[in-house]
Amino acid sequence: xxxxxxxxxxxxxxxxxxxxxxxxxxxxxxxxxxxxxxxxxxxxxxxxxxxxxxxxxxxxxxxxxxxxxxxxxxxxxxxxxxxxxxxxxxxxxxxxxxxxxxxxxxxxxxxxxxxxxxxxxxxxx
Length: 125
What we know:
Elements: E1 12-23, E2 38-46, H1 50-63, E3 68-70, E4 75-89, H2 110-116
Antiparallel strand pairs: 1-2, 1-4, 3-4
């Protein structure tokens, strides 16, 4: 079988989707110039193809977009699903130390690269 970078040989895909926080009664919630808090969530899905993985990630994102009442006043809000941002095939079996994602970065000065690195004491959120 020929190698295809869009196919996971182990059947796993890393997918991300974007949510934005809205107040449902906000008249400006669809203003393209307004700023909104957002989350990009990343999940693992088992799928037969890139397209099937996309569909699964889309379904998960939509399931995480239910209205609720927030804050002391019980304002109607929700994390609104916007869409899938990334689907990446995983090329190795899921195991301790398996590489599941990588990013190609533009060349940068060493001093700038070193600023990206976080010590163990800074890892907690």
